[in-house]
Amino acid sequence: MAFGHNGSTQLGAKYNHLNDIDYFGNNMLHLAAELSPYKQLSRVSGAALQMQRELQWFKEVEKFIPPKHRESRNNNGKTPQALFTEEHKDLVKEGEKWMKDTAQSCMLVATLIATFTFAAAFILPGGNNNDTGIPIFLHTTAFLVFIISDALSLFSSSTSVLIVSGILTSRYAEQDFLVSLHRRLIIGLATLFFSVATMMVAFGATLFLVLHHRAQWVAIQITLLGSVPVCLLYRSFPYWLTW
User: Fold this and answer.
1) What is 148-205 written as a DSSP string?
2) Where are the transmembrane segments (predicted)?
């Protein structure tokens, strides 16, 4: 009989054929350990996420396999786990490169945001009172919005830097692609997205403080336009970020 990655229906009702062995000594878990065809892999964007899908499939099949078959060897003397490692060694390397490239890009953007928001905290819109040193717009709502959003952007971008730096220093073991690396990347991207959003809020609040006396309509229009990059950034994120 034929097994394969499309054999999920064979794992269904009544668990038929779980003990079957093919001509080469492979049980169902051996066949689940084989690398998926390129057409199926290409449905998922990114080598690291492809590796995660492969691990998820292997672990799911493993749940249905009798314990004695999990360590059984085929005619080549390979257990299902050993076969999985051999079949996916190139994908692990590609996943490591993809993950590091993504993490480095995120770190660069997050570092720039942290730098700008840190500097903005000392260059306040409107300046300070020369006599007291107190910010001129201290008691306005827009100034409060600016301070809070700038601080949130700084904290979230700094968090993103720390998280993605952990990705760069990971060991990139096969099992790390199942949960650990994926979770770190999601948190790193989510905090980066939040830092961009709050940075745009701080930018809009600054414009409103500077222009609301003379050209309030301009400040409102530009502030609304500031939401466009945030929306585009959200839509550009891979679908798995919203899981």
Assistant:
1) HHHHHHHHHHHHHHHHHHHHHT----GGGGTTHHHHHHHHHHHHHHHHHHHHHHHHHH
2) 106-124, 136-164, 185-211, 217-237
